[in-house]
Design goal:
Elements: H1 15-34, E1 38-39, E2 45-47, H2 48-51, H3 56-62, E3 64-67, E4 74-77, H4 82-93, E5 99-106, E6 122-129, H5 134-150, E7 157-162, H6 163-170, H7 178-188, H8 191-197, H9 203-214, H10 221-228, H11 233-248, E8 253-256, E9 270-274, E10 284-288, E11 302-308, H12 309-316, E12 324-328, H13 334-345, E13 350-352, H14 359-363, E14 367-375, E15 378-383
Parallel strand pairs: 1-5, 7-8, 12-13, 12-14
Antiparallel strand pairs: 2-4, 3-4, 5-6, 6-11, 7-9, 9-10, 10-11, 14-15
Helix pairs in contact: 1-5, 1-12, 6-11, 7-8
Length: about 375
C-alpha cells in the first residue's frame, strides 16, 4: 500500500471534480476568445534562466529544478505561466502592437501556497502586452470580474492595491535584502515586525509604511492616504489610478489594501485579487508588470491575471450534479448501434449497457432520464 501513496499536497482529480474543472476551463477559454485573446500552450518545462526571468524569489522558491541529462543545464517545471507568455510575446511573436494571449493548464509548486493548497494547481489566465495606459488595466480587471461571474461567483469582491507606492517609498532600497522584512511585515499586518524591519529608514518612510499597514478597507480610505502619505507625484498618481479603476472595474464590492505586496520584485503598477467565503487564499490574482520581457530583448508594458481553477472547482464539487444520461440495452445490432451514435452526435450522453451491467451501477455516475427502446417502427426515447 505504501507504494500507492501520493506525495503530500498532491491528489487525484476524480470524475465529479474533473467534470467541474473541465467545464470551468472551457468557459474561461471561450470568454477569453470573444475578448480577442489568443490561446498559447507553452511547455511544462524550460531552462530556468528563461522560466524565472523577472519573476523574483517567490517563483524561484516554488519551482522544481533538475538537470537536463542531454545538456547538463538546469531545467525547471513551470510554477506560473506568465513568464512563459512574456517570452513568447517578446522573443517569438515579436509583434509591434498590442498582443493578447491566454492560457489554461497545470503548474507545479515545490511548496504549497498555503497549508491546504494543491502543489499542482490548474490555472487559466490572460496577459496583455504592449499597452501601458489605465484603459488596459481596466480591460484586464473587468475581464477578471466577468470570468469569475462566468464561473459561478455571484458577488465578486475585488481588492485593489498599487505597487508604485511601495516602490516610491523604498526608492533604491527596493532591491535590497532589507526590504524582505518590510514586505513580510506588511503582508502579515504586523506593526512590531514592521518597525523592526524599517529601522534605519527615514522617519517619513517609517510613518508612511505604518499608515499603509493600518489604513485599508473601503475606497473612502483613499482620502486619508492622499492626505497623509508623502506628496510624491508617483504616489498621488497611483492613488488616483486606484480610485478610478475601483469605479469602473465592474466588481460588486471593492476594497483597497496596499499591504498585499506579493510579487513586489516584478509587479510595477496596479495589483488586484479576489477572495471568496470559505477559502483562505485568493482565487484570482492580477496586476501590471511592465518590463518583464526585457531579458528576452524587448521591454514591453504588460498586465494580466491568473484564476486558480482547481481551488474554485474543489469548492463547487459538493454542489455539482450528476449529468443526465440515456441508457441503451440489448444485444449487438447494427440499427441499435447506429441510433446510439446518432444520439451521441446530437450531444446526448448514452451509456450502452454491457452484459451483466445494472442500472444501479450507472446511477452512481449519472442521472438516467431516458431509455432507448426498440419499437415496431424503429426506436424511441422512453422517459424514466
Amino acid at each position: 500500500m505504501i507504494s500507492w501513496l501520493i506525495p503530500e499536497h498532491f491528489s487525484d482529480i476524480l470524475p465529479r471534480e474533473a467534470r467541474v474543472l473541465e467545464s470551468m476551463r472551457r468557459k474561461c477559454l471561450d470568454l477569453f476568445k470573444v475578448h480577442g485573446f489568443e490561446l498559447v500552450q507553452p511547455p511544462m518545462v524550460e531552462y530556468v534562466d528563461s522560466l524565472l526571468t523577472g519573476s523574483g524569489s517567490d517563483l524561484d522558491n516554488s519551482t522544481f529544478k533538475f538537470m537536463d541529462p542531454g545538456t547538463g543545464r538546469t531545467i525547471g517545471i513551470r510554477a506560473d505561466m506568465t513568464p512563459q507568455c512574456a517570452r513568447i510575446d517578446a522573443h517569438i511573436l515579436g509583434r509591434k502592437g498590442v498582443s493578447r494571449l491566454c492560457y489554461a493548464g497545470s503548474c507545479l509548486h515545490a511548496r504549497p501556497m498555503h497549508p491546504l493548497a494543491s502543489r499542482e494547481p490548474v490555472v487559466a489566465g490572460v496577459e496583455l502586452f504592449g499597452a501601458s495606459g489605465i484603459e488596459a488595466d481596466a480591460e484586464i480587471m473587468s475581464l477578471a470580474v466577468r470570468t469569475l461571474k462566468k464561473l459561478g461567483i455571484d458577488v465578486v469582491h475585488i481588492d485593489i492595491g498599487h505597487m508604485a507606492i511601495l516602490h516610491a517609498l523604498m526608492g533604491e532600497r527596493i532591491s535590497d535584502e532589507s526590504v524582505h522584512g518590510v514586505v513580510r511585515a506588511l503582508r502579515m499586518k504586523d506593526p512590531v515586525a514592521l518597525a523592526q524591519a524599517a529601522v534605519g529608514f527615514d522617519p517619513e518612510v517609517q510613518q508612511a509604511l505604518q499608515l499603509l499597514l493600518r489604513t485599508f478597507g473601503e475606497v473612502s480610505v483613499l482620502d486619508i492616504l492622499e492626505r497623509e502619505l508623502p506628496q510624491k507625484p508617483e504616489i498621488q498618481a497611483a492613488l488616483r489610478e486606484v480610485r478610478e479603476l475601483a469605479s469602473i472595474c465592474g466588481a460588486d464590492e471593492v476594497s483597497v489594501d496596499f499591504c498585499d505586496v506579493h510579487g513586489y520584485q516584478y509587479l510595477t503598477g496596479i495589483t488586484f485579487s479576489v477572495n471568496i467565503p470559505n477559502y483562505a487564499q485568493a482565487v484570482l490574482r492580477g496586476g501590471r508588470y511592465d518590463g518583464v520581457g526585457l531579458a528576452f530583448g524587448r521591454s514591453r508594458p504588460a498586465c494580466g491575471f491568473t484564476v486558480y481553477l482547481r481551488a474554485l472547482a474543489g469548492l463547487q464539487v459538493a454542489a455539482s450534479h450528476r449529468p443526465q444520461a440515456v441508457v441503451a440495452r440489448g444485444p449487438l445490432a447494427r440499427d441499435l448501434e447506429a441510433q446510439v451514435e446518432k444520439l451521441r452526435d446530437e450531444g446526448h450522453i448514452v451509456v450502452r449497457l454491457l452484459p451483466g451491467e445494472r442500472d444501479e451501477d450507472v446511477l452512481e455516475q449519472f442521472v438516467i432520464t431516458k431509455e432507448l427502446v426498440r419499437t415496431s417502427s424503429g426506436f424511441e426515447l422512453k422517459a424514466l
